[in-house]
Model the fold of this input.
Amino acid sequence: MKRLRKMSTERVRGKLLANLGLIGATADQIKEMPRATLLDAMASLYSILREQTDDPLSSEAESSDAESEHGEHGPATTPPNSDAAIQLEILKLQKEQAAAQLAQQQYEREKLQHEREMKDKDLEMRRMEAAANEKLKREEFDVKRLKITEQTKRDQPPIVMLKRFAEALKGVMHPQPADPCGLPLYFDKQFGVQ
Done:
């Protein structure tokens, strides 16, 4: 990774432009990338090349050493520790990316949980409002019914009320006799008068 960091930005761009198909980016995107993103893309390119071949880093390291020490042509030797250092840096970058992804996933989970809680609270508030509205409607209905009942009582004329009472008493009282001699017996049975 030290060697990767020592590379100039233009050189890193050139290597990435040479491998556009592997990294899945366009030339315009690579030209606009800042150095840190370019280094990340280069690290992912190394890991892709590593999967495709047994030792891609040594060939990349050899070509970069050859270019830096002997020009474009000449023998290239890589120190044995450079591959391990690059792999270690790649692993560190991958670990950082994985940690960032985990943090992003945790944030998304917390965000979804917060949204669910807010929806639940909103639903509970709506239920409470509906229950309060239903209670208010019942109370209004009861008040209207009482008003109608009172109005009906006030609107009934006394003659209708008297007729209703007379009909209710018909079955209870015996008819009054037409003969005046039967009156004492009638009052005795009806009212218990002696």
User: Anything to note?
Assistant: The chain has a mean pLDDT of 78. Residues 23 and 41 are 7 Å apart (CA to CA). The radius of gyration is 50 Å. Residues 80-155 form the longest helix (76 residues).
